[in-house]
């Protein structure tokens, strides 16, 4: 029995840093991690507090822990260690991050400890972020915040695409831009800021206005994810992004602000999840004022985006950027399932109500269905 337990224990057991140990009584001990509470009761509790737990600092192997406890039954001690391990209280301090420097480990320490809740090899998710390559389109009030969040999260390679210069609104609402940057290129200014504050991120930029799907294809090639950040509605660019990413086999996600609402998704995995066209056609099919909407869409397409002034409060972009960044981290690291696969996620800025709206694949979607080029069969042809 003892050998069976020993074989499953961490090589160098350590109490996980996110776990609090709280004595309840001489015979009861509480392990608290956030809202999760676990208790251990019995005569061995006082022994654990006085002699065992101080040894669980990650500097000793199991045998080295057992050495000063020879006066205690070995089987019982292994059972206690096994129970702590099964309950997720222990981690293996012998596991090291081979692809990360000491400076990186220090910077991302809090995030790595968070990831330890989801996998015994706590560096696994951070290393996935480090190995990820993404492209961000749009560095307005939303995009620049997403860029900053992903850089701080430790995404290894980020390319940014934007063809605009810094205006008064950018300075007022974007943390990367200062008064002295007025009139300068957004991407070039962001590149300088990234170099100062995010030395572990490989950053590249393209000062370019997107006018077609062909403009996008070369920019998303060999990327793990493309991110479209739009401060105001522009349906055309979503069409182009969808077409380019489907052609290149690259997943993509979008986030944008629309007056009193923030909209995130759908996350599109080419030919596996519903694409943007699936979403758009189903949306239009349920419109009450279809003709009016189509007239608006044509107008916005011709004008290169909605030209109206969109008054907003600064927290609007912060809220959407935070949610979008978290969703991207889930997509890249896979520490949790993204909610925007097959869904649109909306946030009402006034009520703070969040909703998930399901999207279904269109069997004959003109963009992503394998049947899109096969003529429909008539009943009399069967």
Describe the structure.
- With 382 residues, the protein is α/β, with parallel strands linked by helices.
- The protein contains 15 helices and 13 strands.
- The chain has helices at 2-8, 45-52, 62-66, 74-86, 102-107, 109-115, 124-130, 143-153, 168-173, 186-197, 213-220, 235-248, 276-285, 290-303, 314-333, and strands spanning 13-15, 20-25, 28-33, 36-41, 90-92, 133-137, 157-161, 202-206, 225-230, 251-258, 261-264, 343-348, 354-358.
- An eight-stranded mixed sheet has the order 8-7-6-9-10-11-12-13, with helices on both faces.
- Strand 2 and strand 3 form a beta hairpin.
- Helix 1 (2-8) packs parallel to helix 4 (74-86).
CATH class of the largest domain: Alpha Beta
Mean pLDDT over the full residue set: 88
Number of strands: 13
Q: What would you give as the CATH superfamily of the largest domain?
A: NAD(P)-binding Rossmann-like Domain
